[in-house]
Design goal:
Residues 44-464 form the Amidase domain. InterPro entries: Amidase, Amidase_dom, AS_sf. This is Amidase. There is one protein chain. The protein has 15 helices and twelve strands. With 477 residues, the protein is α/β, with parallel strands linked by helices. It has a single domain, classed as Amidase signature (AS) domain (Amidase signature (AS) enzymes). Strands 1, 2, 3, 4, 5, 6, 7, 8, 9, 10, 11 and 12 form a twelve-stranded mixed β-sheet that branches. Helix 2 (39-57) packs antiparallel against helix 3. The longest helix is centred in the C-terminal third of the chain and has 22 residues, at 365-386. The chain is globular.
């Protein structure tokens, strides 16, 4: 069946077609194996799209087409000689500009950094290159991933934000420029733009993917993950990073297998409204309710606060979820930002970034300890409920991408400018919990993509991927 599509009365409609199937690398690779296409031909098709569309979408801040062509030519040879490196061999990718790619700049939309190329690859990029993936370029981010906004537009409606902070990564996949990008999430920065841009966004468990070589934001919540045209592309990307570079310090990486798991219908899911529920527009609410009805009719029990006291208690804790997460992030983001200010003065950061940093600088160690205690209470209750359900379900964003009223020059710098990229309220909880989460592009609202979010307990990534596949097949067929 098609995606569930709803419209608000008198809404500004986008151009998203609910029947759209983004061009996945998994599908393209079948033609490589059959000898009817090649990685170089596939790359040239992606480059043509970038050259045609990116002057408007502005997903990429740097491209290296010649380097990508050399990599594609090497992949062509491997396919001809039947010695491919992995299921990602020949896959064109964009890398979020917070993550180092050797030979490409890591400017991060900041006045602090030049266009000089990074010398070394981040762990994830090292792993993806070893798997044969092709680095097409770096994707736009807000300043240092949390300050003044990038110029990126939503490919389904240029009036709208592409989300933050993985703005360019989400837009590049949504526009079909590349089948896979790498994003990162500390609060809501991967799942939200995945929802806005019809991506399959996958935030693995905390520590499951090595974050070495990524500019830090809040180390106790920093995640990286794939944003992809298909669930198979997303899992393959995460698996290759984990299997080749391992998890981050203290974490062994993903468990499971390289192949996408078979679809597994869950028996019970816990529905979490979180503080975001009050922000939903009527059409988004109706779309989620229709999806819930469909899932229930397929034999899945969805329980909520009205039928489970622990879920009600968790919801009460999560009423402050975004505030708790923001406290932790802004306290931890002080370093290295304080050093940047000490070295370069007040001009080192935008007004937006300084206003957010001031929040962390005003906190005491006791304030931080209190936020960590609150996070631990949430984690403990999530684990308790998780022992009797197969996962959690909620929205992946509080509606479709908003029209952001950005000035014509594309630059916004004021204390609350980061809020233009959308609410984090549905997303902060699972960044704090550290469990895996997906945004699945199963709905459309006002002619724009809208994702549903599936969440699991830490280190249940493979199991949650099997459930995500069941949702994908049950709704889209």
């Amino acid at each position: 069946m098609p995606r569930i599509a709803k419209d608000n009365a008198d809404a500004q409609r986008g151009n998203y077609d609910p029947s759209l199937v983004l061009p996945s690398f998994t599908a393209a690779r079948q033609a490589f194996l059959a000898g009817t296409s090649t990685p170089r031909k596939h790359l040239e098709e992606r480059i043509e799209l970038i050259e045609r569309l990116d002057n408007q979408v502005q997903a990429f801040c740097f491209t290296d087409f010649e380097g990508a062509r050399r990599s594609a030519d090497a992949s062509d040879i491997r396919y001809r000689e039947n010695r491919t490196l992995s299921p990602l061999d020949g896959c064109p990718m964009g890398i979020k500009d917070t993550i180092d790619v050797g030979g490409m700049p890591s400017k991060m939309n900041s006045r602090l950094f030049s266009m000089d190329p990074a010398q070394y690859d981040a762990a994830a990029v090292f792993a993806l290159k070893a798997a044969g993936a092709i680095m097409v370029g770096k994707t736009h981010v807000p300043e240092l991933a949390f300050g003044s906004l990038p110029p990126t537009r939503n490919p389904f409606d240029m009036r709208r934000t592409a989300g933050g902070s993985s703005s360019g990564s989400g837009a590049a996949v949504g526009a079909g420029m590349v089948p896979v990008t790498i994003g990162n999430q500390t609060g809501g920065s991967l799942i939200r733009p995945a929802s806005f841009n019809a991506n399959y966004g996958f935030k693995p468990s905390f520590g499951a993917l090595n974050v070495a070589g990524m500019h830090p934001i809040a180390p106790s919540q920093d995640h990286i993950g794939p944003m992809a045209a298909s669930l198979a592309d997303a899992w393959a990307t995460a698996w290759e990073i984990s299997s080749r570079a391992g998890g981050h310090n203290g974490h062994p990486g993903l468990s499971g297998a390289a192949a996408l798991p078979r679809a597994s219908r869950p028996l019970r899911l816990a529905h979490l409204q979180t503080e975001g529920w009050a922000q939903l527009d009527p059409a988004s609410l109706a779309a989620f309710e229709e999806l819930s009805t469909l899932v229930s009719a397929a034999g899945v029990s969805i329980i909520d606060r009205d039928c489970d006291g622990d879920i009600a208690r968790l919801e009460d804790l999560l009423a402050e979820g975004d505030r708790i997460s923001n406290d932790i992030i802004m306290y931890e983001v002080r370093w290295p930002l304080v050093s940047y200010l000490d070295t370069h003065g007040a001009q080192a950061l935008s007004e937006t970034a300084k206003a957010r940093l001031d929040h962390g600088l005003a906190m005491s160690p006791a304030d931080y300890r209190r936020a960590l205690t609150e996070r631990n209470r949430i984690r403990d209750l999530v684990l308790a409920i998780g022992s009797r359900v197969d996962g959690y379900i909620t929205m992946a964003s509080s509606g479709p991408a908003p029209v952001d009223q950005k000035p014509a020059d594309g630059h916004v710098d004021r204390p609350a400018a980061h809020k233009i990229t959308g609410s984090r309220s549905f997303l902060s909880p699972w960044s704090m919990v550290g469990g895996p989460s997906f945004s699945l592009p199963l709905m459309a609202v006002d002619g724009m993509p809208q994702g549903v979010q599936l969440m699991g307990l830490p280190d249940t990534d493979y199991r949650l991927t099997a459930i995500a596949r069941w949702f994908d097949e049950a709704v889209l067929g």
